[in-house]
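Notebook, p. 212. Picked up where the previous page left off. The plan for this session was modest: take the two constructs that came back from the sequencing core last week, fold each one, and keep the raw output in the notebook itself so nobody has to go hunting through shared drives later. Recording the first one now, exactly as returned: residue sequence, then the structure token string.
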Amino acid sequence: MLLAVAPSLNPTTQRIQALMRGHTDRAEEAEILQLLGEADPATLNESITQLDMADLFSDIDDHWGGPKNKTQLLQMLSQDRLEQLEVPSRSAIIGGLQEGWTRVHDEGSAKVAGGLEEQAIRNIIVGTEGASLSALKNSINAGADEYDMQHLLYSDVDDQGLLTEIFSHIETQGQATPTGQIKPLSDIDDTFYSNLKDDRYPSETVYPGVLAFYDELDKGAKNEPDALGDLTFLSARPDESSGTIKNRTHRTLRENGVKEASVLLGSLTGLINNEAMAKKKMENFEQYKAIYPEYDFTWTGDSGQGDAILGQRMLQQYPNRVKGVFIHNVTGLSADQKQDFRQQGIRVFDTYLGAALEAHELGLITSEGLNRVATAASNDLQSITWDSEEQKQARIDDLNRDLERMRESLRGPGGSQPRKL
């Protein structure tokens, strides 16, 4: 068996890593600054993405009465050589700063507004424009940990003046360069997998076709994949300062097939009732929408908690930005209840092929995408270990009904369609 070989480190990276081992004294800090300052653009970008930037920022200091090495390093990376830095490098720098100290610094008796790190974050974001800014934000969100864009702008950066500059730049760039793409937003429990109220499936079953449905919403009607990080989960699970729940949630998603996604969590007070859950998720959506003015959105939730309430508010307040609301029927909603929701713009579904049919009707996914969801849902359904034969047959019946609806909807376009189970 062939083993994957890790890419070799360039000599600049190797030397900096050697200088960072153990205590890094002033002479070693000066050499690191010289190595990065003299590196050609290709080497500089490569080294930034190869180094642990959080460790680097921790090792380089501003010395009382001595050289201001950290100030020099941050000025080099966020101003002097910023134009030479590619998006992955800019993302790595911000990620390293997020993991460290991003609060007000004291410099003698005077306070530096926002601190050196916050100013560097501001410089990098404001110094990035158009599609590159979208790519930068998506790259930061693609880290699958608590250090995402929401955490950066609503927790890490404290200086209101810097935040105003950042959000003004994001809004201006978003209006100037809309992507025409969608960021799919989704709940987790009883939407991505059965975990709370849904006894139609074995506990913690990833719903058949859900991953394919997310993928097709991400590709959109033009059938083109977006950048990584478009899928985002809005969950009622409570957030906390250590990031433990968010990291655990990311791990659960990865273990169940979600390679890249952002996670926005709720709060303890948001668990009181459905209204509180919807309110907290709406707050998260408002923040996320401000970070991504260049995107539109869809929302996928379930009927067991406050997701339908949230969908109603999204459509009422942002009808031009929210292109579809899909609610997974896990509580046995009647035909009349489904129709009531539909009149409000909310599409209720029993299977993810049903959700894809609704998205296709809204012009959000292609006919080819619809077929891909159908195939995935059929294959996924057959791989489940069921609690009972009755449970299995009921879900087969659900899918067969939606397969028949798909045939009636497409009526002969090219491409084979999955057979009934």
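Okay, moving on. Second construct, recorded in the same format:
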Amino acid sequence: MNLPCTPRVIATLLAVGLAIHPGLARSADVFVSAERVVPSERVAEGVALRDVTVDGGVVSGVLANTSGKVLRDVQLLIQHDWRWRSEFRPGEDNPSRAVYYVVPEEIPPGGQTKFTYRTDPPLPERSDGHFDTSVRVVGFVEVSGAR
């Protein structure tokens, strides 16, 4: 089995192992931080997206933590929507695309961090339309650090 080595996967595997072999768990040895994925309807309450700029395929901005907990794995949805010069006669090759980008830094309560995403592969340069790029926060993990 080839699982990604994220803290969430590690915590889940640890919990399953301890459930199968409870004798392995001693409170002095085991530390699993209390974390939870925030439901999508609460995303706007915990993190603010500010000062977003788009220059070609480079998207940057600032994320501000408006919650009282440490945030990590802030997930952005970056959409590059192609707008045809003539919407009445669109072409057949629509280069629109979307990507989920996870910001690697943790953000302390009341803190902020800058992010920069470079589109890879680069957006094509074309004369039959242009890209409208949008960014929104679609998820994050709250960490409370309990022992």
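Notes on construct two before I forget. Residues 9-33 have pLDDT under 50 and may be disordered.
Flagging for discussion at group meeting.
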